[in-house]
Each structure stands twice: as C-alpha cells, then as structure tokens.
Predict the structure.
Amino acid sequence: MHRGVHTVSVGEGNMVQACPVGDIDIESPAKDSRPHSVHVYSPLNRTENLLSASLTLPFHVRYLSPVAHGGYVTVELGAPSLLLHCQRDFQCVQEKRVRAPCGPCSQDKCLWVNLSYKTNSPSISLHVPVGNTSHHGLVLIVTLLVTCGGCVYILSAMAEAWPHTSSVRGQEKRIKQSPSPSQH
C-alpha cells in the first residue's frame, strides 16, 4: 500500500506537494483497481489580476490487460478540480465551497473554493503500450526456461559450495574433539 506526501521539483524552484487520497496499491493491475484521487498543492503565480500555475507531474500508469496483436490503448484522465484556499481576505463564494484537507495529507479540513479555469489541454489522454495475447505461449516458455535455468544455477552453486562447507565443519569438529597439548 502506498500513502504519504511526495515533494516533486517541477522546474526552477517550483515545488509541488502531492498526497494520494486513501491507500493505493500501485502495483495492482488496472482491472483489479479502483479509480483514485490525488491532492496536489502548488504555489500560484500572480500577474496583475491573473493567478496561474504550471505543473508537470510524474505518475505511474497501471499494467493493462494484453489485447490481440498488442499495440497501444488510450487512457483518458479526468479533468482536475482546481481549489483555492479560502482565507480571510478572500470572499468565498457560498455555492462553490468545498471541504478538503488543509495541506498535504492533513487530516484537518478547510474551506476551499472550487474554481472554473481555462487550460491549454482540455483533456488528458495517454497512449499506453499493452501486451500481445498472441505472444502468450512464447512468453510462457521463455519465462519457464529462464526460471528453471536460474534454479539450476543456484542449486549448482550450492552443490559446489557444499563439500567445502562440510569439510570445514568436519575440521572444526575434529579440532574441538582433539585433546589439547597440555593434557598429555
């Protein structure tokens, strides 16, 4: 399971903090996983009456089930919500108020305003490579051969070391059993 605050540098001095909502098993395949959310906290840049932020975030794409003839599948990411923290000098619009964590992975909830925004990328779609089901037999055979080869190698290394370790143990045993020179 994965949980915790992650700080990521996104350019010259811009730091972004991200926190997943709830526990996430990042290694489970897409077919066995539920969608999840991540809260991302970033400072805003102010230019006259315009607030802006430029974010580049690394993320992990789940393993997708293989398809006939392999290739790529398109994965669509939902549009993010943009929240602005309500502070004393900011008028919070009553209808757009939401409660969310006050900071990265904080249990405390604060008031935020859900803002509408413009973006250069209205939808985010990814082209993710997927396995080829027609290669199933080949992958299975190669995997079994490599696994068996690794087992044979490990067993042969153990067998090669075995006579040496047993002779050392025998010598230790003889040394312990032999009388010391002062007893003669």
Summary: Confidence is low (pLDDT under 50) at residues 1-12. The helical segments are 136-177. The first strand starts at residue 6 and ends at 9. Strands lie at 6-9, 15-20, 38-41, 45-47, 50-52, 71-77, 82-85, 97-101, 109-115, 124-130.
